[in-house]
Amino acid sequence: MFPVPWSSLTRWVPVSVRGLRGLSLFSSSESSSNWSKVVSDAEKIVGYPTSFMSLRCLLSDELSNVAMHVRKLVGTQHPLLNTARGFVYDSKNNLQMRGLIVLLLSKTAGPSHAASELLTKDMVSGIYPSQRNLAEITELIHTAFLVHRGIVNLKEWTVSDGPLKDMEFGNKMAVLSGDFLLANACTGLAELNDTKVVELISSAISDLVQGIYYENYYNVEDGLGDGMDVTPWEDQAFLSHGALLAKSCQAAMQLAKHDREAQRLAYLYGKHLSLGHKLNSDLQPFVKSRLGEMTSFSLSAAPVVFHRQIVGKEKWHQQLEEAKTLRNQLDYSKLLAAVKSEKGVSSAVDLCRYHSNRALEAIQAFPSSEARSALENIASAVNKF
């Protein structure tokens, strides 16, 4: 598959105002509390909280001006407002996890035999300055994509979303501020002075664009399409949710001059953790214990993909028709019951546990330490529902 240009993403795949992507990993209070504790313990190991890892960039004069303009969106339903609020206020959901994983892996692996003593002297809490910079770069890239994904499809605009001119303004700010963050990340990437790391992270950006493009292509929220099967879903989920972390973990090993095997294992940890992360997020609406709660979910979520493959195309279309209301909208409670009646949810849970276990296996080759234990706890927490 050929990489999709960044400009194509911003032009062709805006999201619906009413189909906003959530920023948190866990939606149930018990899972969120467990995850927060695991992350809080891990942050103590790397030496500082990573919740505001990209703070230096976020507090720059340029972005401060952007923030002032974003205030104009108050009172509208534009996703950029929620994204900006989430990064400043919503620390309980640990939005910036990727940088923490990079730092923990860097500390777990430590210096390699090939690293010079001069470089070792620059380490702080067992982590090279270049690895800390890489962690910030990873978060900036992730933040840039979150901002860009908040572009609204104005064809679906309604008066309740806010004035049309404000929504158009919000789209312009999402493009400009996302581009600004990405440009800063690329500048920092060049300053690392490592060609292989530049290649890895550049390819991760290409993967992200391609993954989000296909995610929107298959995101059949109108219920009329056939969607995709499980294998293509995993491939697409890796591109849009796993490639950045997996390649950043590998790049952290490269910066410390670790061998190919260490880089491969770090890559596998990031890959399987990300896929488990995504599966857990997709499963949340299906594992909630509250009955009668109004819950919406994507028709490209993993349990739905499994369910569709299990029941077949004909029955799936029948269930979609039965779930439609008089206004030709989907009754998600009926569709939720249909998906839970088969093995789609349990199959997704099994796949989530598989990726969690694979991540745990990958990390076992590194020396036992407090940092490795934190990585193990994070991989295990992905299993909790």
Fill in the keyword field for this structure:
385 residues; 17 helices; 66% helix; disordered N terminus
Q: Total number of helical segments? A: 17
Average residue-wise pLDDT: 77
Q: What percentage of the residues does DSSP assign to strands (E)? A: under 5%
Order of helices and strands: HHHHHHHHHHHHHHHHH
Gap between N and C termini, in Å?
34 Å
Helix/strand structural class: mainly alpha
Report the strand count: 0
Rough outline: globular
Kindly state the percentage of residues in helix. Answer: 55-70%
| Major beta-sheet overview | none
Low-confidence stretches: 1-29, 88-95, 220-224
Q: Determine Rg (CA atoms, Å).
A: 21 Å
Describe the structure.
The protein contains 17 helices and no strands. With 385 residues, the chain is mostly helical. Helix 10 packs antiparallel against helix 11 (230-255) and helix 13 crosses helix 14 (313-322). The protein is 66% helix and 0% strand.
What layout of secondary structure does this protein have?
Blueprint (H helix, E strand, L loop, with lengths): L5 H7 L16 H18 L8 H4 L2 H10 L8 H11 L8 H12 L7 H5 L7 H20 L15 H28 L3 H24 L11 H26 L4 H28 L14 H10 L1 H10 L9 H10 L2 H20 L6 H12 L4
Compose a concise summary of this entry.
The chain is an all-alpha fold. It is built from 17 helices and no strands. 44% of the residues are buried.
